[in-house]
Design goal:
Keywords: Membrane, Transmembrane, Transmembrane helix, Transport
Protein name: Neurotransmitter:Na+ symporter, NSS family
Strand order of the largest sheet: 1-2
Pfam families: SNF (PF00209)
Number of domains: 1
CATH topology: Sodium/glucose cotransporter
CATH class: Mainly Alpha
Bound molecules: phenylalanine, sodium ion
Largest sheet: 2 strands, antiparallel
Order of helices and strands: HHHHHHHHHEEHHHHHHHHHH
Main location: membrane
Number of strands: 2
GO cellular component, one term: membrane
Length: 447
């Protein structure tokens, strides 16, 4: 059997992981959800969720991947716990599910890049979104986006994913940075910053009453589950992606340091995107807070239509969004491709094409009707992601246990105390946080 692939360099893994994390979640969802859920107040809750729950959970996924050097499903078996294979199956399934509609939105982005060149959406941005976001147009662009994803993944871990993300990730950061500076110079931007960055702490309340079952009320009942799921989605957790990427990493690399890099960059790009998008809306007098799938597209298209040099800005902006979406989508396809390559040793390009085709098929309903897309997204957020992350956390904390600490500390100069603290956090606070998220999510879904 041939040698399993690995990253060529340490930076290769970090950039690929950052590329996976930084995506549509940061640019398409985060600024708008932040507006919808109360501006900076949501930002505070989100950051607590990302650092307090997302970071320890990412370390758990890294440990599963690097310890086993296998795909997200095989990993659990190889570590000696066949009964926990369902966690991997759920993760891979969730990745498959999410990529199906992620790619549809990726197709919209491609469309809007083209539309910026020709000025197609300038006359009536809302009507344009209605035209291109559903139906055969959306289907064709969904296919095109998927072909791009397959082409990169077909190239392999080192020559495909690593080379691509080495180029993509720095471009995202630099271009968004330039855009943020440019927006800052526009008249009328300043209320956007205070909206985005000054929290209303009175919003941060949650009360529980027992009657006799516990039920929750207060503004946090919506904010917490959304913030936690958004942190999972945004950090690419619960989909086998970080397990898979870490499975190509050597023992000499500090997982701890790498996870911090990913969380910092992911949060920074989300905030940077907010610093571009939210003040831009204020500049154009567009009401933030009207969320929904079309928010980014309709409101930004409206802004670009009215700005001088709107075409150039539009191409550049949607270009960054496209790069970010691609570098995330490849990690989702790699989850399933890695499973197939590990198990059947078949040829990577053919596998990538076949699985890309299946994912394309699953995305057809979302491409034809945005109501389906919303439904796919809601199910992923409220149920699949938290359950899947919870599975990894319980496995690492309570089943695998101590050996996880040894694996975490390999290649790092940290003392055992840090490792044990992490393990106990995972076992207690982090697990409880996810359980609370699920309870609140279920309460809002069904009651
Ligand atoms: N993290 C990506 C984003 O924020 C989405 C993603 C989820 C990518 C899961 C890979 C795995 O857009
Ligand atoms: Na993200």
């Amino acid at each position: 059997m041939s040698q399993r692939e690995t990253w060529a360099t340490r930076a290769g893994f970090i950039l690929a992981a950052v590329g996976s994390a930084v995506g549509l979640g940061n640019i398409w969802q985060f600024p708008f959800k932040t507006s919808e859920y109360g501006g900076a107040t949501f930002l505070v809750v989100y950051l607590v969720a990302a650092i307090g729950i997302g970071l320890p959970a990412m370390l758990a996924e890294f440990v599963v991947g690097r310890k086993s050097n296998l795909n997200a499903i095989g990993a659990f078996e190889k570590l000696g716990f066949r009964n926990w294979k369902w966690v991997g199956v759920l993760g891979v399934g969730t990745g498959f599910w999410i990529l199906s509609y992620y790619s549809v939105v990726g197709g919209w982005v491609l469309r809007y890049m083209g539309g910026s060149v020709t000025g197609a959406y300038f006359a009536d941005p809302a009507a344009y979104f209605g035209q291109v976001s559903a139906g055969l147009d959306a289907l064709a662009l969904h296919a095109l986006f998927m072909i791009l994803v397959v082409a990169i993944v077909a190239g392999g871990v080192e020559d495909g994913i690593e080379k691509a993300t080495k180029l993509m990730v720095p471009s995202i950061v630099v271009i968004l940075g330039v855009l943020a500076v440019w927006v800052f110079t526009l008249p009328g931007a300043s209320p956007g910053y205070s909206y985005f960055l000054s929290p209303d702490l009175s919003q941060l309340s949650l009360s529980v009453s027992f009657d006799p079952l516990p039920s929750f009320s207060g503004p946090l009942t919506d904010i917490i589950p959304f913030a936690v799921s958004q942190a999972f989605f945004s950090l690419s957790l619960g989909m086998g992606a970080m397990i898979t990427y870490a499975s190509y990493v050597g023992e000499d690399q500090s997982l701890f340091g790498d996870s911090i890099t990913v969380v910092v960059f992911n949060s920074a790009v989300g905030i940077l995107a907010g610093l571009v998008v939210i003040p831009l809306l204020f500049v154009q007098g567009i009401e933030p807070g009207s969320g929904g799938a079309g928010a980014l597209f309709v409101s930004l298209a409206t802004a670009f239509a009215e700005l001088p040099a709107g075409r150039v800005v539009g191409v550049v902006f949607f270009g960054v969004v496209l790069i970010a979406a691609l570098s995330s989508a490849i990690s989702l396809l790699e989850v399933v491709v890695s499973y197939a390559v590990d198990n059947y040793g078949a040829r990577r390009p053919q596998i990538a094409a076949a699985l890309g085709g299946l994912i394309f098929l699953l995305g057809i309903p979302s491409a034809l009707d945005t109501a389906w897309l919303g439904w796919f997204d809601t199910l992923a957020y409220q149920l699949l992601l938290p359950v899947s992350v919870l599975g990894v956390l319980v496995f690492i904390g309570w089943v695998f246990g101590r050996p996880a600490v040894d694996e975490l500390l390999n290649g790092s100069s940290l003392g055992g105390g840090v490792g044990m603290t992490w393990l106990w956090l995972v076992r207690t606070v982090v697990v409880l946080g996810v359980v609370l998220t699920l309870a609140l999510g279920v309460q809002t879904l069904f009651f």
